[in-house]
Amino acid sequence: MNRIHLAPWIALILLAGLAGCESAKVPEAFPQAAADGWLAAFNSGDAEGLALMYSPEAEILPPDQPIVSGYEPIREFWMTFNPGNVRLETSEVETMKVGDYWYREGTYSRLYPNEGEPRVGKFIELWTRVDSAWLIHRHMWSPNAPSY
Amino acid sequence: MSRAAGILVSVVLAAGCTQSPAPEPFPQDVADTWIERYAANDAAGVAALYTEDAQLLPPDMEVISGRAAIQEFVANTNPPGGPQFEIATIETLVFGDYAHRQGSFTIRDPGGPVLESGKFIELWKKSDGKWLIHRDMWSFNAPPPETDTRSDEPS
């Protein structure tokens, strides 16, 4: 008899434990859909969309320029960059889960109009989750050869 | 019975999800050692503060991988008598066996004006109980000056 009464309590305890953990869980896989969305926004020239893929406290650290912080400056940066003019590809990408963040690194290849050879470089990103969305928190890149 | 189970539910809610231990502080002592060794032109000593499979990601150069290559890079780019190199830490995040540091740097003539400034991001990794730099990326805040100082650029 006692066993029958215990069963629902045990189930409730287990469910409570699982529910308590759920909000703190970081998925085991890198949020690739978010990274794919960033790349798609870049290659379609959607500077507004790109800016929305950064966290409110995001910073981008571009080469030969000071740090760009926050939504509006990041939006202006990408508007000026004019990404639709460039075809971007990434490769050799590695991801590491670091606490509640994801770290991603890799190489990029940018093909500009009227240039036969792409400009190649490397990048690192730190991704964070804001509510249910994975967003870029820090973004740094540099070319593999001088462009000046 | 129901009271005991209620207490148990509360305990599970409060602690059933394994809490991450409070993060330990950023290993500033190792970062300080990096500065000391760099100032002393100790390329081997600087390289020893990186993981075996560490990578430098310098501007306008390809990625430099591995401790031996890092030592060679530091030896070539930080000769005795070169410009002074100063670092300021802006942000650190420590999460388990990894840590993130962001900061700024300046390069100046010994006792003279600032020649260039820049920013960096590092990913640190704890290996065998020791904190070491795993990824080290930096870039300058402006295109190179007329007089190129970047042959002495820091790591």
Summarize the structure in words:
The complex is a heterodimer of chains A (148) and B (155). Chain A has 148 residues and is α+β, with helices and mostly antiparallel strands. Chain A has one domain: Nuclear Transport Factor 2, Chain: A. Chain A has helices spanning 2-22, 32-43, 47-51, 71-81; strands at residues 54-61, 68-69, 87-98, 101-111, 119-130, 133-143. Chain A has a 6-stranded mixed sheet with strand order 2-1-6-5-4-3, with helices on one face. Chain A is globular. Chain B has a single domain (23-146), classed as Nuclear Transport Factor 2, Chain: A (Roll), CATH 3.10.450. Chain B has 4 helices and 6 strands. In chain B, strands 2-1-6-5-4-3 form a 6-stranded mixed sheet, covered by helices on one side. In chain B, strand 3 (84-95) and strand 4 form a beta hairpin. Mean pLDDT of chain B is 86; it is low at 11-16. The interface between A and B is large, with 38 and 37 residues.
Question: Which structural traits does this protein have?
Answer:
heterodimer, A: 148 residues, alpha+beta, Nuclear Transport Factor 2, Chain: A, B: 155 residues, 6-stranded mixed sheet, 4 helices, 6 strands, 27% helix, 37% strand
